[in-house]
């Protein structure tokens, strides 16, 4: 389980960043749908409003302690006009993709010269990262405003939070493979990894997790694998309202939720691989085989 989750999270998506983007004062407009209408509240692009960070004294959804957002690394702020352009550009993504063309169309919508696109050092990546930051903030707002998690067991809470987050991508699903490709670019992978790590950490905090040391890392690696595999599965799901995706998600969470077994497996894996590293590729493969044999040949995902 640990091996597969780590491979999914770090290998397939190539996710990694140099900085995180601070949500600008202007809240972007994420296209509403039958899914996002339950999660997002859009604001007019012409109205500027101060966007205040979630209070550090807000209670977690489980009632355990307070949410501590101040520990996050600060995100770089966009200039006001850049923020307006990115916000307006999202409405053009379903038609034009995560492209400079979408950004130019967005700039025209808000009366800014399309030449402003040249001020973004990574252009399309800035648009994708803006969207990712916006979705994370929307999820945090949803949790802080009282997302009903108290009557759910931990595995159900995780499934609900991941589903809430992935539903925000539904209006952009036809263009999401392009977004993943942009995130996987060597210049963007560090930011992508940090954004996803923050999302996973936020979900665990909402569930009420207080793990530390190895337990902390294993839990987040496993949840990152669950999120990533479900995101990839969703791209090819043509079932009504993504029902197959949500069933897949629930199964993956149940598979991964025996954390004691996962932690022990991680220890076995580290020991076996450690013994193989420095010898040969065959030694590395032998370490993998030993770990799989201890698990009885089963797979988690």
From TrEMBL:
Example of a GO biological process term: ubiquinone biosynthetic process
Location in or out of the cell: Mitochondrion
Chief site of localization: mitochondrion
Pfam families linked to this entry: COQ9
A GO term from the CC aspect: mitochondrial inner membrane
Mitochondrion listed as a keyword: yes
Residue spans of biased composition, Basic and acidic residues class: 65-78
Pathway given in the UniProt record: Cofactor biosynthesis; ubiquinone biosynthesis
Amino acid composition bias (Low complexity), ranges on this chain: 52-62
Start and end residues of each COQ9 C-terminal domain: 190-259
InterPro entries in the cross-refs: COQ9_C, Ubiq_biosynth_COQ9
Region annotated Disordered, chain positions: 39-78
GO molecular function: lipid binding
Keyword field: Lipid-binding, Mitochondrion, Transit peptide, Ubiquinone biosynthesis
Function of the protein: Membrane-associated protein that warps the membrane surface to access and bind aromatic isoprenes with high specificity, including ubiquinone (CoQ) isoprene intermediates and presents them directly to Coq7, therefore facilitating the Coq7-mediated hydroxylase step. Participates in the biosynthesis of coenzyme Q, also named ubiquinone, an essential lipid-soluble electron transporter for aerobic cellular respiration.
Family to which the UniProt record says this protein belongs: Belongs to the COQ9 family.
Name assigned to this protein: Ubiquinone biosynthesis protein
Organism: Arabis alpina (Alpine rock-cress)
